[in-house]
Amino acid sequence: MLRSMSQHSSRVPQQNDSTAPSTSTARATYRTVLAVREFRMIFLAQVIATLGNVVAQITLSIMVYQRTQSPLLSSLTFALGFAPYVFGATLLSAVADRHPARDVMVACQAVSCVVVGTMAIPGMPIPVLLVLLLVLGTVAPVFQGARAASLPDLLSGSGYALGRPCCGSSRRAPRSSVSRSAGCCSS
User: How far apart are the first and last CA of the chain?
Assistant: First the structure.
């Protein structure tokens, strides 16, 4: 059974640790923030999860267009990928608070892997794919909430101030770059 990140105090930089960024003595840099192994892993997991969600959403929209020749259904499919974020974040946000962050993040990624693997089965009916897209979109904000809850345990002081937006940009950058390269957004 996995232990929560707060129990790994030996891995979490403390304020008096020479590698930990401190607001009073030294300013944090991206180098010091990325020197924390657990933060790097969470950052990488966030980038991979976001890329996977965006690619699944765009691929499903393209597939709906190819099967139906309807730009309306294709755009509705793309928009449907964002709808669960509202409900998932609202209804399931307590999951990240009531369970250890690491367990929640691992469970969310396991569910995402199973869902995307199921979506890849050839000949899957479009309604089933849309339901799977809803499940994928519902799990993503739970992962993001657990990730956000784990950051104060990993980074302290000004390191947290740099790490938090760093993870936020890891969510936005892949979404916008993949969408632009697929021709979904004009730049």
Answer: 46
